[in-house]
């Protein structure tokens, strides 16, 4: 069970990486997260919406009205060019984080002893 | 479906009714309904599905933080945007009246002075002290305006602060402030009276010390 403050830092990366593979909308993304993680992570509705609002405000995603559902157009999200750039940075940051933590959690692939 | 709508409405009760909040509400409701329908399609019954959906709602605190931040970020550089709400609308109408009243009060004071100067030139008016009477009547009207609208303004500020969720002890301070304003305005009126009618500018100024003392008394009195 990952702490909420830890996972919060990765929400943006998760959503952006999904949107990088194609436009989608709220429920679809939430479902993708649940299925891809094998049920290990279910993103709450408020977390999801907060992330959308945040990412859109920073210009990393854009929203548009897609096909109708239940009488009102659904809001679709698409990743923007700055969004892809930001995703690239976050993925790099994750690789560095993982490499760093591997040094301390005994899962290094190569020995770093002199 | 109604259950989900009611659930979301309840969660959002304490938030102000702004476009951002309404959009958040609509989005979240849509996502939850999608999830609910998908669960029904999987064969879950209504109550089970609702339970799952409610559990996946999340925390309003997170949303409030995000929306609170976004309200500030989207504000024009300059004064804070005023939140919407029935009380704010009422206050806005009041503000116009308040501005008019204060302006009128100041203009009255000046006109009163002008009237008194004119009347002072007329011997028959001077004999009846009309110039003093005219001036003080007009000033009285102006002070009345200031006190009346001033107290109402205090009352609005207090209520609006309450709406924003300020601690309850603020309300005591609001009443105290309007009482203090009234006391000091009365002191000004008495001072002017003493000065113009009896030329008691000195020791008339003592009235202000008395007023300040009364204010302190009022403060301790309320605190009891």
Question: What CATH first level of chain A would be assigned?
Answer: Mainly Alpha
Largest interface: A-B, 21 and 24 residues
Sequence of strands across the biggest β-sheet of chain A:
1-3-2
Separation of the first and last Cα atoms of chain A = 36 Å
Beta-strand portion of chain B reads: under 5%
| Mean pLDDT across every amino acid position of chain B | 81
- What is the count of DSSP helices of chain A, taking H or I runs of 4+ residues? 4
Quickly count the domains of chain B: 2
Rounded Rg of chain B: 29 Å
CATH superfamily of chain A: Winged helix-like DNA-binding domain superfamily/Winged helix DNA-binding domain
- pLDDT < 50 stretches of chain A: none
Helices and strands in order, then pairings?
The complex is a heterodimer of chains A (114) and B (224).
Chain A: H1 4-20, E1 24-25, H2 26-36, H3 45-57, E2 61-69, E3 72-79, H4 81-104
Antiparallel strand pairs in A: 1-3, 2-3
Chain B: H1 2-11, H2 19-41, H3 46-55, H4 60-73, H5 86-121, H6 123-127, H7 130-163, H8 169-198, H9 201-204, H10 206-223
Molecular structure report:
Chain A has 4 helices and 3 strands, in the order H-E-H-H-E-E-H. By secondary structure, chain A is an alpha+beta fold. Chain A has a single domain, classed as Arc Repressor Mutant, subunit A, CATH 1.10.10. In chain A, strand 2 and strand 3 form a beta hairpin. The longest helix of chain A is centred in the C-terminal third of the chain and has 24 residues. With 224 residues, chain B is mainly α. Chain B has 2 domains: 72 residues, no CATH class; 137 residues, no CATH class. Chain B contains 10 helices and no strands. In chain B, helix 1 runs antiparallel to helix 2 and helix 2 crosses helix 3. At the A-B interface, helix 2, helix 3 and strand 3 of A face helix 2 and helix 4 of B.
């Amino acid at each position: 069970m990952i702490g909420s403050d830890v996972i919060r830092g990765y929400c943006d990366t998760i959503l952006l990486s999904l949107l990088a593979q194609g436009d989608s909308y709220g429920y679809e993304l939430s479902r993708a997260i649940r299925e891809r993680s094998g049920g290990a992570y279910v993103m709450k509705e408020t977390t999801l919406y907060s992330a959308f609002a945040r990412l859109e405000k920073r210009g990393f995603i854009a929203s548009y009205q897609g096909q109708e559902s239940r009488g009102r157009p659904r809001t679709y999200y698409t990743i923007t060019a700055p969004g892809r750039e930001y995703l690239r940075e976050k993925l790099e940051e994750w690789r560095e984080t993982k490499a760093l933590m591997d040094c301390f959690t005994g899962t290094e692939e190569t020995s770093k002893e002199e | 479906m109604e259950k989900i709508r009611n659930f979301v409405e309840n969660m959002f009760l304490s938030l102000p009714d702004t476009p951002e909040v309404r959009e958040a509400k609509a989005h979240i409701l849509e996502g939850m309904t999608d999830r609910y329908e998908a669960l029904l399609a999987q064969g879950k019954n209504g109550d089970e599905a609702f339970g799952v959906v409610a559990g996946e709602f999340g925390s309003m605190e997170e949303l409030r933080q995000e929306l609170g931040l976004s309200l500030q970020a989207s504000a024009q550089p300059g004064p804070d945007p005023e939140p919407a709400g029935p009380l704010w609308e009422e206050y806005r109408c009041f503000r116009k009246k308040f501005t008019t009243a204060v302006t009128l009060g100041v203009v009255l004071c000046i006109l009163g002075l002008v009237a008194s100067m004119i009347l002072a030139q007329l011997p028959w008016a001077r004999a009846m002290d009309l110039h003093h009477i005219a001036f003080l009547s007009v000033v009285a009207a102006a002070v009345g305006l200031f006190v009346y609208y001033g107290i109402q303004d205090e009352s609005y500020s207090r209520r609006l602060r309450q709406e924003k969720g300020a601690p309850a002890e603020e309300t005591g301070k609001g009443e105290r402030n309007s009482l203090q304003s009234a006391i000091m305005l009365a002191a000004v009126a008495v001072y002017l009276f003493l000065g113009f009618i009896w030329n008691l500018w000195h020791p008339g100024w003592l009235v202000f010390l008395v007023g300040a003392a009364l204010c302190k008394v009022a403060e301790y009195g309320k605190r009891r």
